[in-house]
Amino acid sequence: xxxxxxxxxxxxxxxxxxxxxxxxxxxxxxxxxxxxxxxxxxxxxxxxxxxxxxxxxxxxxxxxxxxxxxxxxxxxxxxxxxxxxxxxxxxxxxxxxxxxxxxxxxxxxxxxxxxxxxxxxxxxxxxxxxxxxxxxxxxxxxxxxxxxxxxxxxxxxxxxxxxxxxxxxxxxxxxxxxxxxxxxxxxxxxxxxxxxxxxxxxxxxxxxxxxxxxxxxxxxxxxxxxxxxxxxxxxxxxxxxxxxxxxxxxxxxxxxxxxxxxxxxxxxxxxxxxxxxxxxxxxxxxxxxxxxxxxxxxxxxxxxxxxxxxxxxxxxxxxxxxxxxxxxxxxxxxxxxxxxxxx
Length: 343
What we know:
This protein is α/β, with parallel strands linked by helices.
């Protein structure tokens, strides 16, 4: 692996980890069997989103690299190649853990250079994947954000977020807290094959219900809508109905996109499970990572019409509470690494 290029004193890419800071562990327990953890001491934790991104925020925090959710379509797979790790099975089973993430975040939030901007989590890999049950990084991260009244949002497929519900409620008292759960479909056979390491769609929607019942507004990112496998009108209707019944405050559809890294892995999976669809995907994604605009608009219109029918609307952005960002000195910004984003 290319750890040497990423440690202090490296002459290649910017240093991400301190020298001699990588510890590799394997755990022979049922929930972690087959997974290797690379524990690192990160040198920065607040990452700037690339300027060309479509995302409505500028900064992210990601305590993990790689994800045991093993979603065959995950756009973040390419990031593993930066460490010379495999973007297929390696992405699913070689998990990089930034063990100092909470203390590092607290230090960066306390810097006079930090503006108090919104921080998004779960936009690269899931911060509530299985590893979080062992490493418990998110409580310290949420505490740091709460103590600095810094607005933040979390996107997750993990029901483990309910463990931190008391902290989320405390944070919501002093700043804007946005929670979204990702549920692209409720089709069980499809879920078992494309998201094998995730909680079931029903379990995720149960987490939405628990969050909303506790007074934490929670939206659903209906992602991804998978062409020819999860986009039939009856599938969309069933999913939006289930989202509405969960008490979600919003539902926002996102059609599958296939970036390099994810594209190759998903295409191999498609060829093994649905070979008749490979030519259709080649035509649909001939123009790049995204499905044609007409198709995206078609799906969005259907979902929004169903959402209106069932009494929920598309996502909406709010305004942070209790945070008055200080003026940033000219040219000042926290040192941060650029990373991939959700869109």
